[in-house]
Amino acid sequence: MHSAPSDLPIRFESVTIDAGAHRILDCVSLIIKSGPPTLLIGPNGSGKTTFLRAAMGLLSPSQGQLTWDGAADVPPVRRAMVFQRPVMLRRTAAGNIRYALKAANIPKERHEARIAELLALVGLADIASRPARRLSGGEQQRLALARALARDPTVLFLDEPTASLDPAATKAVEDIVRAIANRGIKVVMATHDLGEARRLAGDIVLLHRGRVVETGDADTFFRSPKTGEAKTFIAGELLL
Fold first, then answer.
1. Cα gap 67→59, rounded to integer Å
2. Does residue 175 sit in helix, strand or coil?
3. Where are the domains positioned within the chain?
4. Rg value, the chain, Cα
């Protein structure tokens, strides 16, 4: 489905990000490789959103270096991001995707087929002509996923996409995430839900106070966490 170039692996090398006097990411070193979804977990304020924004290329390190497939300062042509509260354009569901296709310079003659494909992928084919802002929260999140896929990214960053959704809407989004991953797109997703992390993750990154506390294969992480912070967090206790 994809052609070169790819932005993977994404390498954080001692990346620190400050906002004024506040340190949000603190000397993070990590490599994001192709494969199953990487799930970022950790308490509120741990740095998950900042990590995603930096990996997307929306934030520059205060210290350290970020590289995409070995190169720095790579335009985010093959990356896409869906925020926790995506903004819907004043257009139909199909119109939102059409706008994204135009922005990605996809030839006009391919638009209708691509719109139909993406709406079918996220289960919204029957409401293509409905105004996007009148969709439910879960439908809007699914439309945001379709819109992000318009540029055919190699990497998709998701910032707690199910945070405000009910169980049925959450399952629908999780099913789409699996379908996206099965297409060979690398998903890097932040979540506050440990159950969701267990269901989706190929590997886990636990962040706390801007630092990577523990990372590794999801099965191993949940079965035998190595750090006290991971054991505390998995047990559902407060990580202070």
1. 13
2. helix
3. 10-234
4. 18
Length of the chain: 240
Q: What is the pTM of this model?
A: 0.94
pLDDT of 159 > 50? The answer is yes
Q: Which CATH superfamily is domain 10-234 in?
A: P-loop containing nucleotide triphosphate hydrolases (3.40.50.300)
Integer Cα distance of 159 and 210 in angstroms: 16
* CA distance linking residue 177 with residue 109, whole number of Å: 28
Closest CA to 196 of 165, 238, 231: 165
Per DSSP, the residues of 48-98 read: HHHHHHHHHTSS--SEEEEEETTBSS--GGGEEEE-SSPPPPSSBHHHHHH
Structure tokens at 184: 């060979």
Span 44-62, pLDDT tens digits: 999 999 999 999 999 999 9
